[in-house]
């Protein structure tokens, strides 16, 4: 009986030590980013399986068309010198009509500033972003082509996490209301992006 108790205690101690080592291996180097941490922010960060990414594989600026990924998700790309790009693919089912599924594709890019207090402000280039809404049923929401929505996050934190069994850099964005983005994992560094300069010319007075 005493030996059984000793074996049980040894097993429990081993499990605790193993769990602590996995936590240490999976989550370390936690940091909240502030001005000057732009090198840590640099890269392309994608949620979930990493199928959604920025760049020409998601949005074609020549035809202003999207290449829909195989699964939903979102991605941000940042450069050290203040440029960013965003891609999002969202699928929303209709509880009343399960056969009617709405999808949303968003792309935009612009400039960002990471402030000393940790706030991250993203300003899109006006009239360059695009959004496409589609539905599997007729009579859904009409597609909207233009999209330029600024974003602001009061906290940007990063850490090393186990993602699909691989140690990866992770990023999370939190807004002023406490809403957190899904964990975003760095999949490219340097980032995969379209040109950061304005992609279109605007002619005033020409329809």
UniProtKB/TrEMBL annotation:
Q: What keywords appear on the UniProt entry?
A: Endoplasmic reticulum, Membrane, Signal, Transmembrane, Transmembrane helix
**Compartments where located:** Endoplasmic reticulum membrane
The signal peptide annotation in the UniProt record is 1-25
| Coiled-coil intervals, chain numbering | none
GO CC terms in record: endoplasmic reticulum membrane
Please name the Pfam families in this protein's record: Rot1 (PF10681)
Q: Name one GO biological process term.
A: 'de novo' protein folding
Q: Topology relative to the membrane, per the entry? A: Single-pass type I membrane protein
Q: Which GO molecular function terms does the record list? A: unfolded protein binding
Q: InterPro entries, from UniProt? A: Rot1
The UniProt family comment states: Belongs to the ROT1 family.
The protein's name in its UniProt record: Protein ROT1
Organism per entry: Moesziomyces aphidis
